[in-house]
Amino acid sequence: MQHDRLEDMMKGWFVGDFLPAAVRTTACEVAVKTYRSGDFEDAHYHTIATELTAIISGEARMFERVWRAGDIITIEPGEATAFLALTDVTTVVVKLPSAPDDKNFVNAESQAPK
After folding, report:
1. In terms of C-beta density within 10 A (0-12 exposed, 13-18 middle, 19 or more buried), how is residue 102 classed?
2. What pLDDT was estimated at residue 107?
3. pTM, rounded to two decimals
4. Quick one: CA dihedral 30, 37, 86, 70, positive or negative?
5. Dihedral sign, Cα of residue 83, residue 21, residue 9, residue 70
6. I want to staple 99 with a disulfide (CB 3.0 to 4.6 A). Which of 48, 51, 59, 85 is the partner?
7. Count of other CB atoms within 10 angstroms of residue 13
8. SS3 5
9. Which residues, listed in sequence order, are joined to residue 68 by a DSSP beta bridge?
């Protein structure tokens, strides 16, 4: 038996080919992420990984659409989007396969709403 704490992981990522990890594997990455209303992630894409984001609670904007609790967004390699928390939001994110260096930003400067 092993016991880990989510707050000891990096930004909610607890499965993947990185440390710390509850399970280290190249098969996938898994995270539970929490955001406050107004939190923003700049537009980025992956060249290798497919990313699935499940909205567990709250509302967020991705791909210029509003997503709510229960929505699952599948993002294929090469598809770019930003993330804006419209309310406090909790997500579960899965990336297949684990590719820790596969995050490519669209612009060098932040696109965060002003």
Report:
1. middle
2. 83
3. 0.91
4. positive
5. positive
6. 48
7. 21
8. coil
9. 59
